[in-house]
C-alpha cells in the first residue's frame, strides 16, 4: 500500500520523473494520486491499477492493455489524455491529465442538481466525446458521473471522459466478414441477431441518458431504493421525473432524456440524433463549448448574419462538431 511519503514501491523510472503525493480518487481497480513532474513541477494524476483486484491476472492485463491502447489512440479535447505508462509485477501506473474540478459525481452531489444551461454545456461535450469514440470504433460501456471529470471548480468548464477500463474496440466480427460475401443465402436472423452476445454503440446512448437525468434531476433514474430491483426498473425502462425536482426543467431537455432512456436499442435516439435535437441547437452554448475545447483557436470574427436561423443539418453538425 503506497503511503503518500513512500515512493519506494514505485517503478524506478516513474520515481525519477514524478513525485506522487496525496490520493485524489479511488475506484474498483485501485486509486488515483496527485503527482508532480520533477523537471517542471507540472501537476498530473497517476492512476494505479492493482493487478490483484481482478479475479484473474489475465483479465487485469487485458483490461489495462485495452485501456492503455485506447488512451494512447484517442485525441479529443473531451477525452482524458495519457502522458506515460509504467508497470510492476503487481500494478499498472498510468499518468493522466489532471482535472482540477474532480468528478462530475461530486459536483452534482454538492449542488443537488445542475442548472439546465450548465447540464446542457456538459452534456454537449459528452456527446462530442462519445461521437469521437464511436467514429473510431470504440464503445466506452461505463459512462457514469464518476467517469466525467471537470477542468475547474467553475460551472462553465471543460469536461473530459475518463476510465476506458470497460471499453471495447469493435473488431471486425465474424458477422462483418460474413456480410462481405453474398447475402443471398443468409438467414434473416443473421442480420437481426447476428451478434446476440454483443451490443452496439447504443449502450453508450443509454448511459448518456442516465447521466443527463442525474445532472438535471439530481438523483438517478433507476435505484433499488425505488422499490423494485434496479435491474427490473432498467429492463422495463421505468423511471419517474419527480415534480419537485423537474418542474423547472424544460420540455425539450426532458424529451432528450426520454428518447435516450428507451429500452429497445433500435428505437433509442442515437448520438447524432441527440446532437441534432432542438435542445442542443443553442449557438451560444456551442460557442462556449468550442472555446473551452479549443482555447487557442481564433473566435470567429464573422458574427452570424442578423436574423439568420441556422437550422443544423447532419453535415452542419459534422462540420462544426469535433
Ligand atoms: C484521472 C484524473 N485526472 N484528474 C483527476 N481529478 C482524475 C481523477 C480520476 C478519478 C478520480 S480523480
Q: Could you walk me through the main structural features you see in this protein, from its secondary elements to its overall organization?
A:
- A hairpin with a 2-residue loop joins strand 1 and strand 2.
- The protein is built from 13 helices and ten strands.
- Helix 4 crosses helix 12.
- The chain has a five-stranded antiparallel β-sheet.
- 32% of the residues are buried.
- With 322 residues, it is of the alpha+beta class.
- The two termini are 41 Å apart.
- The longest helix has 20 residues.
- The protein is globular, with a radius of gyration of 21 Å.
- The structure holds 3-methyl-4-(thiophen-2-yl)-1H-pyrazol-5-amine.
- 3-methyl-4-(thiophen-2-yl)-1H-pyrazol-5-amine binds next to strand 1, strand 3, strand 5 and strand 6.
- The site of 3-methyl-4-(thiophen-2-yl)-1H-pyrazol-5-amine (WVI) has 14 residues, from strand 1, strand 3, strand 5 and strand 6.
Q: Number of helix segments?
A: 13
Task: Give the percentage of residues in beta strands.
Answer: 15-25%
Major sheet attributes:
5 strands, antiparallel
Let me know the number of strands: 10
Query: Any low-confidence stretches, pLDDT <50, length ≥5?
Result: 302-320
Output mean pLDDT.
84
Helix and strand sequence: HEEEHEEEHHEEEEHHHHHHHHH
Provide the helix percentage: 25-40%
Unique ligands: 3-methyl-4-(thiophen-2-yl)-1H-pyrazol-5-amine
Give me the secondary-structure category: alpha+beta
Strand order of the largest sheet: 1-2-3-5-4
Span of the ends, CA to CA: 41 Å
Amino acid at each position: 500500500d503506497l503511503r503518500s511519503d513512500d515512493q519506494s514501491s514505485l517503478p524506478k523510472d516513474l520515481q525519477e520523473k514524478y513525485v506522487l503525493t496525496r490520493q485524489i480518487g479511488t475506484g474498483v481497480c485501485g486509486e488515483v494520486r496527485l503527482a508532480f513532474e520533477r523537471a517542471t513541477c507540472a501537476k498530473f494524476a497517476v492512476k494505479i491499477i492493482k493487478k490483484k483486484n481482478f479475479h484473474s491476472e489475465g483479465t487485469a492485463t487485458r483490461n489495462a492493455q485495452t485501456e492503455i491502447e485506447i488512451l494512447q489512440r484517442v485525441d479529443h479535447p473531451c477525452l482524458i489524455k495519457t502522458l506515460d505508462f509504467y508497470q510492476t509485477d503487481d500494478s499498472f501506473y498510468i499518468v493522466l491529465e489532471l482535472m482540477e474540478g474532480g468528478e462530475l459525481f461530486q459536483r452534482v452531489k454538492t449542488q443537488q442538481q445542475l442548472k439546465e444551461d450548465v447540464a446542457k454545456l456538459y452534456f454537449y461535450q459528452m456527446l462530442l466525446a462519445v461521437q469521437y469514440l464511436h467514429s473510431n470504433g470504440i464503445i466506452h460501456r461505463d459512462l457514469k458521473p464518476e467517469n466525467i471529470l471537470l477542468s475547474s471548480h467553475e460551472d462553465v468548464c471543460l469536461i473530459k471522459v475518463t476510465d476506458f477500463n470497460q471499453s471495447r474496440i469493435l473488431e471486425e466480427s465474424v458477422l462483418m466478414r460474413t456480410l462481405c460475401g453474398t447475402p443471398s443465402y443468409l438467414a434473416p436472423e443473421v442480420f437481426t441477431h447476428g451478434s446476440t452476445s454483443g451490443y452496439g454503440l447504443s449502450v453508450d446512448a443509454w448511459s448518456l441518458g442516465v447521466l443527463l437525468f442525474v445532472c438535471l434531476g439530481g438523483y438517478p433514474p433507476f435505484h433499488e431504493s425505488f422499490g423494485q430491483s434496479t435491474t427490473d426498473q432498467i429492463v422495463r425502462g421505468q423511471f419517474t421525473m419527480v415534480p419537485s425536482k423537474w418542474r423547472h426543467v424544460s420540455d425539450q431537455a426532458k424529451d432528450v432524456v426520454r428518447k435516450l432512456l428507451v429500452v429497445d436499442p433500435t428505437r433509442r435516439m442515437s448520438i447524432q440524433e441527440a446532437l441534432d435535437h432542438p435542445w442542443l441547437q443553442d449557438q451560444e452554448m456551442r460557442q462556449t463549448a468550442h472555446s473551452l475545447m479549443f482555447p487557442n483557436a481564433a473566435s470567429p470574427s464573422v458574427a452570424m448574419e442578423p436574423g439568420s436561423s441556422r437550422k443544423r443539418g447532419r453535415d452542419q453538425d459534422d462540420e462544426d462538431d469535433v
